[in-house]
Design a protein that fits this description.
With 434 residues, this protein is an alpha+beta fold. The protein has two domains: 39-136 and 292-433, Orthogonal Bundle (MetI-like fold); 163-282, no CATH class. 50% of the residues lie in helices and 9% in strands. Strands 1-2-8-5-6 form a five-stranded antiparallel β-sheet, with no helix packed on it. A three-stranded mixed β-sheet has the order 3-4-7, with no helix packed on it.
Length: 434
């Protein structure tokens, strides 16, 4: 039979006609940019001449680029591993719950959100203000459950006050107190509208010859020349819950009490002749939570956002692989006395190894080019600390005006991706031969 006749030529032409648009697009969108970036990486930033390996030398001498490279290594190690592990756990657990499909839908839903939208969401989640940021709202709520914050962080003695500083943020009376002589502990610094909700109008304490009595209150009345300094006036509020200690000269505490809603307090006769101290914890600044987007935590915080988006993707792929696992093997292991942990570790995970490798490699390639989340979530003050190679490429090209260095970074990213792609291709070929 003759080969290469008119029919074969016609088929070749048809195949070429169908492939040509794809080849042109591939060349225009992939091959040409790669070749141009490679050539541009050896040209000076002003495009005026050959720069040799100066741009590549910059990759390992510039502090910002080295930080980006170090962060990329952390991303590649942490993010794919955590997302794959969570996907594996979710895939196994959803097989055992009644509403598994709905659970998978909820976990996969973040994949429908763009990186831009996810970045904005987590920028709000990590907001430092507990009234806006969900993360700090939860953290502050837990903290305040075990360590109550003060309601008077700005309070302090005013002019001609009977109180003086005692060190460490505490205040103590200048003179010893006596039973039967009411003590006044006036403070200022708390705005009337910032007083606790249970504060009541301050009241002067009555004398008690057997005990030490007194009042602690906000010694301030709105209006010029209104009110008496050091005296309880109408419209002034007591400090409810203010802690008061009676201390001897050696610093030992003989009695403690807290002020009532109107600021009055009573101490036993043992307080006679002591000094009254307002401990520093009365004036401690309220806990404001964790600086999630500060230099120390910004990279792990962004990785959490990434895992939130991609754990659902990992779960769906692993669940598809889990559906093909022979149930007979699992049941046989259980009949032989294996625990669920042993079944999971010795049977489920080994059988899912090819799928886990696919998910892990896919996520590794993905995190090497992560850009959107870091750019949006990390504030300007800590963006240098959260820097990654893709973000540095953008900054070098468009902010710093260094296209040569940006092209060198793009080539470096390509070189980092190639080994992962080669590994994935070889693994797929091995799987195809089985």
């Amino acid at each position: 039979m003759r080969r290469g006749g008119p029919r074969s030529s016609g088929r070749w032409l048809v195949a070429t006609a169908f492939l040509l648009p794809a080849v042109v697009l591939l060349g225009a969108l992939v091959v040409y940019p790669i070749c141009y970036s490679l050539v541009r990486s050896f040209v000076s930033d002003d495009g005026g001449g050959f720069a040799g390996f100066d741009n590549y030398r910059e990759l390992f001498t510039d502090d910002g680029i080295r930080t980006a490279l170090r962060n990329n290594v952390f991303w590649v190690v942490a993010a794919p591993a955590v997302a794959t592990a969570l996907g594996l756990v979710f895939a196994v657990l959803t097989e055992r719950i009644r509403w598994g499909t709905a659970f998978k839908l909820v976990l996969f839903m973040p994949m429908a959100i763009s990186m831009l939208a996810a970045g904005i969401i987590f920028r709000l989640v990590y907001d430092q203000d507990p009234d806006r940021g969900v993360a700090n709202a939860v953290w502050v709520g837990v903290h305040d459950t075990f360590a109550e914050s003060s309601a008077f962080p700005k309070a302090h003695p005013g002019r001609d006050s009977p109180l003086r500083e005692a060190g460490g943020g505490a205040f103590v009376t200048r003179e010893p107190v006596r039973a039967g002589e009411p003590v006044v502990l006036p403070l200022v610094g708390v705005a009337p509208d910032a007083m606790p909700g249970d504060a009541r109008a301050a009241r002067a304490a009555g004398a008690d010859p057997a005990r030490v009595t007194g009042t602690t209150w906000q010694d301030f009345t709105r209006g010029r020349g209104v009110g008496t300094l050091g005296g309880v006036d109408g419209g002034e509020f007591g400090y409810p819950g203010m802690r008061i200690e009676a201390v001897r000269g050696d610093g030992s505490v003989v009695a403690r009490t807290t002020a009532a809603a109107d600021g009055t307090f009573v101490l036993p006769a043992a307080a006679d002749g002591t000094h009254l101290r307002l401990p520093a914890d009365n004036f401690r600044e309220p806990y404001r939570g964790v600086d999630w987007l500060g230099p120390a935590l910004v990279t792990p915080a962004v990785i959490v956002a990434y895992v939130w988006m991609w754990a659902g993707f990992a779960m769906v792929l692993i669940a598809a692989g889990l559906a093909s696992v022979p149930r007979e093997l699992l049941e046989a292991a259980r009949v032989d006395g294996a625990t669920e942990w042993q079944v999971f570790r010795r049977i489920t995970v080994p059988l899912l190894a090819p799928v886990l490798a696919v998910v892990l490699v896919t996520l590794m390639i993905n995190v090497l080019k992560v850009f959107d989340l870091v750019y949006i979530i990390a504030p300007g003050s800590s963006q240098d600390d959260a820097n990654v190679l893709a973000l540095q490429l953008y900054r070098s090209a468009f902010s710093d005006g260094r296209p040569g260095v940006a092209s060198a970074i793009s080539v470096l990213l390509l070189l980092l991706v190639i080994p992962v792609m080669v590994f994935n291709i070889r693994r797929l070929r091995r799987e195809g031969r089985r």
